[in-house]
Write a structure and sequence with these properties.
Elements: E1 4-5, E2 17-24, E3 33-39, E4 45-47, E5 50-51, H1 53-56, H2 77-95, E6 101-106, H3 112-119, E7 123-129, H4 132-142, E8 146-148, E9 161-167, H5 176-186, E10 187-198, H6 203-208, E11 222-223, H7 226-235, E12 238-244, H8 250-261, H9 266-279, H10 282-297, E13 303-310
Parallel strand pairs: 6-7, 6-9, 7-8, 9-10
Antiparallel strand pairs: 1-5, 2-3, 3-4, 4-11, 10-13, 12-13
Helix pairs in contact: 2-3, 8-9
Length: about 300
């Protein structure tokens, strides 16, 4: 068994917690059983114990779902348009509050959002990514704009960015509070911070139970209830501007279904995989688009994005 370390709450410091469930890594099927618990003090959900920092890296293989090639290299025209639409939704949501400027994408992965921000012509955009493999890919396509290493150790001057984005990143951080404080220091006065996190009250979380992709153990170390995250942002010097569901939907539900299929007996797994291929097909995606729109408008989808401004 990989070496593990006990944890306490990164927000209130409480060691006591209530067990939610114990489950394996259903996404990559790597070995181990992991405990998700809810803090008895503030309600933060955390992995306890968690793998050491060194062992945790092995749970991010090169085939990990977010390590996709940048959109410009996508061979399928239909797939390229679909992926561009998703990134443009993110850009439009950000640009409603900050029309352009100097941007830092934290946890930029292979540079998918970063490359689209640069291509828009509105952003002087940079990225930071801890994974050597993902950062190496991004650097081959985007050059020195991508820095590989921990966010807190990046070579970025204080008060130098008009916007910082953390798309599906905060839950992966060992100390998200410290990372938010670091982001606050890098932002100019009145600049915008964008965070997207798993929506713990979403219909997807209720429907899929422990198979929900939002519980993606052991990569998701800290999961914030929405009210708690808003409290944290206010405490760290940010004022909330907007809260929206703009990412995920069909894609995240497909990942939850993939987790569910991976729990089936071997004899049934082939049937489950066939159904999953149908669910991921273009006709099904088009047919379900109205439902995803309603789900997003109700802020009930599996990923929620918060937009906050650094207070002057």
């Amino acid at each position: 068994m990989a070496e593990e370390v006990p944890t306490s709450c990164v927000w209130c410091g409480e060691c006591r917690s209530n067990l939610l469930f114990i489950r394996p890594d259903l996404l990559t099927l790597l070995p181990g059983m992991f405990r998700l618990t809810r803090c008895a003090g503030c309600g933060l959900v955390r992995l306890d114990p968690r793998p050491t920092t060194e062992n945790l890296l092995s749970y991010y293989p090169e085939g990990y779902s977010t390590y996709e090639p940048i959109i410009a290299t996508e061979p399928s025209a239909v797939r390229r348009v679909d992926r561009e639409y998703g990134m443009r939704k993110r850009l439009r949501a950000l640009e409603r509050l900050q029309p352009g400027g100097r941007l830092l994408d934290v946890g930029c992965g292979t540079g998918i959002f970063l490359s689209e921000a640069i291509r828009s012509g509105k952003w002087d955009a940079y990225g930071v990514e801890p994974s050597p493999a993902a950062a190496g890919y991004a650097r081959r396509h985007l050059g020195e704009r991508v820095w590989q290493g921990p966010f807190a150790q990046g070579p970025f001057p204080r008060a130098s960015f008009d916007a910082i984005t953390m798309w599906n990143v905060l839950e992966h951080m060992e100390d998200p509070i410290a990372e938010l404080r670091h982001a606050h220091g890098l932002l100019k006065p009145h600049a915008v911070l964008t965070i997207s996190v798993p929506n713990l009250t979403s219909w997807e979380a209720r429907a899929f139970g422990m198979c929900w992709i939002g519980w993606d153990v052991p990569r998701h170390l800290n999961l914030f209830p929405l009210a708690l995250l808003q409290q944290v942002l206010a405490h760290e010097g940010f004022s909330l501007l907007d809260r929206r569901c703009i990412a995920g939907s069909h894609y995240t539900v497909a990942l939850s279904l993939q987790n569910l299929v991976n729990t089936l007996p071997t004899a049934l797994r082939g049937i489950g995989l066939a159904g999953l291929r149908v669910f991921r097909s273009l006709p099904v995606r088009v047919a379900m688009a109205p439902w995803w729109w309603v789900s997003d408008q109700a802020r009930a989808s599996g990923i929620v994005s918060l937009f906050a401004r650094k207070e002057g």
